[in-house]
Amino acid sequence: MTLLIKNATIIDGSGLAPLSRDVLISGDFISALAESIPAHFADELIDASGLCLSPGFIDTHGHSDVSLLAAPSAEGRISQGITTEIGGNCGLSVFPVTDLNREHLQELYKTYNVNISWRGISDYAFLFNSRQPAVNFASLCGHNTLRAALGGYERKDISASALKAAGALLESILLEGAAGFSTGLLYVPGKFAEFQELADLMKALGSSGKIYATHLRSESSSLLESVDEAIELCLASGTRQLHISHLKTAGKANWYKLPALLEKIKGAPLQISADRYPFIESMTSLSVILPEPYASMDDVSLQKLLKDETSFASLISALGEAEKERDWDCVRFVSSSSQKFESFRGETIKDISSALSLDPVVVCAEILRDSASSASAAFKGMSYDNMISILSQDFVCCGSDESARPLDYSIGRSHPRGFASMPLFLSLLKNSIPLPEIIRRMTSLPAKLFKVQGRGLIKPGYFADLLLFDPEKFISKADFKNPHCPAEGVYKVFVNGKLAFDEGRYPERAGRFLKVF
User: Fold this and answer.
1) How far apart are CA 400 and CA 416, in angstroms?
2) Among 165, 214, 224, which Cα is nearest to 191's?
3) Rounded to two decimals, what is the model's pTM?
């Protein structure tokens, strides 16, 4: 099957000026790119007059490791032009799986109703491909999952023998095709890892030449020190590429640190890149606001603990003491499996507390008791001006920091960035940065950083992951009340040469797991 796209304005992903070219697709690949290709060369013809053709967007930071198995249609990805996602971020990949972390992962992802039957990257990839997902997917190996596979989630230290085994296991996973190594040093058990543990593990990463992606230990009060730690880890282990996840200055007291942050990144003696979503409300587990000892518990264990009334009362007391100055109008309840709070999704904790005549601390505690493992919240605490400055940096890619979800809410509710990151990234930058450069940072730059071969450019021999759209109409109306709104201005999306999106229809799913070597 051959397809000819004629009369499109080609923005090829390289950052160079647009060209008027015809593109011929044969099977999975772009077979020709020329000023004029005769129509008889193809079985099918698309006249793209007035539209732009670009490579499909690459979501540099996603969490669709299990959601793509549960709902492979991934309308939230395809409808905004995403054709490839990098997963396994923030230290959370879905491999390796052993008896020490399988039950935890099964509970963590229980709303997806997927049996975690695999052990490593190859059997996960086999299952992934059998589901015929709409988008391509490459995955990092997550430190939290790796550590828990050998030591569980409760151990604050790791034995020398377990560390050696973890290093060997990481090395084998990288050889099998993982895109790199990620850490989530805010989360259990990653937060327990000291510098030397990480440096020793990352020696396997350094020898592979692959990327280190990190959710920093702190994005707020210890932001600069956390960046120093990440840089020093790379230097100590021989890792040449550092990628900072969802780069931000969290909390008003830290907004002033942006100039020093950018100077530190640009002055480091290694290649540093980052991703950022174009929103000033973050989203993560609601449990991140908890004080100790609850902060050192994983969400599955926390939910079990809170079934005990005495423990629940103790949590309310500890949370109330720790959160005296908390502005609950800046904490937005996004999603959980709790039926009691289902109607309040998208509302702030302050608004929920007013509606139920409950103290905000009690509302928060009840949500966690009902569904800590699935409770997510959005937090206001970022500067709009800082966000624009970060997005404008030439080393920053777009990442949704979300899971691929269908239009319905059958497997949970997205932050609006799940459907809107790409159009908003482009619209926020297009008045100050040339469109080809913006597209480069959404296509070929992430492909280069994560070594995703044959994607990110419109070039003969490359896979036909393509987006036909109107940049002037490329917008999204997704918000916290109605987050699952497809982007506007997208006409057709191709994945591996197959038509995945066609003006509101989803004809074919042709994504695959991408091993990186």
Assistant:
1) 9
2) 214
3) 0.92
Phi-psi region at 423: left, alpha or beta (left = phi > 0; alpha = psi -120 to 50): alpha
| Spatial separation of the C-alpha atoms in residues 472 and 400, rounded to whole Å | 21
How many C-beta atoms surround the C-beta of residue 166 within 10 A? 22
Task: For residue 237, give the nearest of 214, 208, 264 by alpha carbon.
Answer: 208
The CATH number that domain 57-280+381-502 falls under is 3.20.20.140
Domain ranges of the chain: 57-280+381-502, 284-379
Q: Radius of gyration of the chain from Cα atoms?
A: 22
The answer to whether the beta carbons of residues 71 and 411 sit under 8 Å apart is yes
Query: What is residue 362's predicted lDDT score, i.e. its pLDDT?
Result: 94
Q: What single letter denotes the amino acid at residue 236?
A: A
The token pair at 243 is: 């990628």
> Taking a C-beta distance cutoff of 8 angstroms, is the pair 15, 57 a contact?
no
Paired tokens of 39 = 């129509």
Number of Cβ within a 10 Å radius of residue 324: 7
* 116-170: pLDDT as tens digits: 999 999 999 999 999 999 999 999 999 999 999 999 998 788 888 989 999 999 9
Nearest to 181 by CA among 208, 163, 152: 208
According to DSSP, the residues that pair with 137 across neighbouring strands are 85, 513
Sign, Cα dihedral of 495, 137, 486, 407:
positive
Cα 510 off chain centre by: 21
- In the structure encoding, which two tokens stand for residue 508, read together? 């074919």
Pairwise CA distance, residues 171 & 166, whole Å: 9
Instruction: Give 54-111 pLDDT, tens digit per residue.
Output: 999 999 999 999 999 999 999 999 999 999 999 999 999 999 999 999 999 999 999 9
Rounded to whole angstroms, the Cα distance separating 255 from 17 reads 35
